[in-house]
Amino acid sequence: MIEQPNLSYINTLSGGDEAFKEKLITIIKREFPDEKEVYFKNIEAKNFKESAENVHKLKHKISILGLEKSYAIAADFENNLKDHSVVGKAEFDTILQLITDFLETI
After folding, report:
1. Between the chain's N and C termini, which has fewer beta carbons within 10 Å?
2. Domain of life of the organism in this record (predicted)?
């Protein structure tokens, strides 16, 4: 079963402070689409080093959204990119789509 993004970590971080929670969510909703777009441009252009850096950045969002298994998949994919390999790309792209869909609901 594929894990689902959630707000557990954000709820823990915010400690009941709704304004802080909303601020975190707003930042993720603003940054994620841009970071994802840059990743897709770099991966399409076979810019492996840049793609690995993009995945590294996106890993933080994956972690914040409570996706532990997905974080490990992203870490493996990041390492593969450093070796000029796209093994793991399909799984990583699926994770990005899950997050995209989730962010549209919150």
Report:
1. N
2. Bacteria
Distance CA 76, CA 14 (A): 29
**What pTM was estimated for this model as a whole?**
0.95
CA distances from 72 to 13, 14, 23 (A): 21, 25, 26
**What is the tens place of the pLDDT at every residue in 13-34?**
999 999 999 999 999 999 999 9
Domains of the chain, by residue range, sit at: 8-103
CB 48 within 8 Å of CB 84: yes
Name the nearest CA neighbour of 32 among 47, 8, 54, 13: 54
Whole-number CA gyration radius for the chain: 14
- Measuring CA to CA, which residue among 73, 72, 66, 69 is closest to residue 89? 73
